[in-house]
């Protein structure tokens, strides 16, 4: 382990965090969120969710700058702060949550991948595609953590290009503006918040790399807060853009709306695939590190 390559705030914390934050929910459900909650309802949801993530990020940063941080990410920080008796319960819960998050990202990827290529979009089709790419990502993670991190740089470039394509498209203003709040016949704000909130928890992917950082005391706070801040700006900008460009009825029924309104649709598809796969590989890298920390 002594010869293992160490990473900095950008490649070790910011990159995996922002790739998970700007992931499957942004691409496949953000339009649905705006359609159900309305413009101001969505802004309220985005702000409240980020207040929670900022508070958590600041707490992690405070602990990281006050204590020695080792491998295990959130588990290591919490277990050293809350005491020995609940180490195992925290570790198992975080490991199961991280492991299950991989399935969320792979299902989102499979839904987009199979639909775009005209493959089977039924349950068995999604299972087959998800299992195949899970095996591929696991092989990449086994080869080298460094290779996985370098792969994420390519994916980050794809996400940036997809966002440029989205904001560069859309045409003129929508014929019927999205209302301030959702109105009748749509999901409640509580339901929409529950769907959206996992999008802002992605910063834990960077914290999970704590044992692979050059200087955790510096890299964790800088990378974590930067990722949350960039995510907040992107989601607020998307909320205003979508509400101005697309009618509410279309937002409620079309999960691929960002691809359709983009200046260059394939760039958004590349962003969807890249974001979901990078989030999945972040879980594959982070989960075993939690188990490793529990055994130390």
The rounded Rg comes to 19 Å
Principal-axes shape call: globular
Would you count the extended β strands for me? 0
**Percentage beta strand:** under 5%
- How do the SSEs run, as a string of H and E? HHHHHHHHHHHH
* pLDDT averaged residue by residue: 83
- Which oligomeric state applies? single chain
Alpha plus pi helix count: 12
In whole angstroms, the N-to-C terminal distance is: 14 Å
The major sheet is characterized as: none
* Low-confidence sequence ranges: none
Class by alpha and beta content:
mainly alpha
Helix content: over 70%
Can you tell me about this structure?
The chain has 296 residues and is an all-alpha fold. Helices cover 76% and strands 0% of the residues. It contains 12 helices and no strands. The relative contact order is 0.26. The mean pLDDT is 83.
List keywords for this structure.
76% helix; 296 residues; mainly alpha
Layout of SSEs?
Elements: H1 9-21, H2 24-66, H3 74-82, H4 87-117, H5 123-143, H6 145-167, H7 189-196, H8 204-207, H9 216-245, H10 248-253, H11 257-261, H12 265-295
Helix pairs in contact: 1-6, 1-9, 1-12, 2-7, 2-9, 3-4, 4-5, 4-12, 5-12, 6-12
Quick overview of this protein structure:
With 296 residues, the chain is mostly helical. It has helices at 9-21, 24-66, 74-82, 87-117, 123-143, 145-167, 189-196, 204-207, 216-245, 248-253, 257-261, 265-295.
């Amino acid at each position: 382990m002594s010869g293992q390559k160490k990473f900095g705030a950008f490649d070790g914390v910011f990159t995996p965090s922002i790739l998970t934050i700007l992931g499957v929910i942004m691409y496949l459900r953000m339009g649905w969120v705006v359609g159900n909650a309305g413009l101001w309802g969505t802004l309220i949801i985005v702000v409240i969710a980020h207040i929670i993530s900022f508070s958590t990020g600041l707490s992690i940063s405070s602990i990281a700058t006050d204590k020695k941080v080792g491998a295990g990410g959130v588990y290591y920080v919490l277990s050293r702060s809350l005491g020995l008796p609940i180490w195992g319960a925290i570790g198992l819960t975080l490991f199961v949550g991280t492991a299950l998050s991989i399935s969320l990202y792979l299902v989102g990827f499979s839904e987009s991948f199979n639909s775009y290529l005209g493959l089977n979009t039924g349950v068995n089709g999604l299972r087959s595609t998800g299992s195949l790419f899970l095996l591929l990502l696991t092989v990449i993670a086994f080869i080298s953590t460094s290779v996985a991190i370098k792969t994420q740089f390519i994916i980050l470039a794809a996400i940036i290009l997809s966002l440029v394509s989205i904001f560069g498209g859309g045409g003129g203003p929508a014929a019927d503006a999205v209302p301030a709040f959702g109105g009748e016949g749509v999901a409640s704000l509580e339901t929409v918040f529950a769907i959206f909130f996992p999008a802002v928890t992605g910063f834990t992917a960077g914290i999970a790399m704590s044992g692979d950082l050059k200087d955790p005391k510096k890299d964790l706070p800088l990378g974590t807060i930067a990722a949350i801040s960039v995510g907040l700006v992107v989601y607020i900008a998307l909320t205003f853009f979508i509400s101005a460009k697309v009618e509410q009825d279309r937002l409620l029924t079309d999960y691929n709306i960002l691809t359709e309104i983009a200046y260059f649709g394939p760039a958004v598809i590349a962003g969807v695939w890249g974001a979901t796969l990078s989030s999945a590989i972040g879980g594959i890298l982070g989960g075993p590190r939690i188990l490793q920390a529990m055994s130390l």
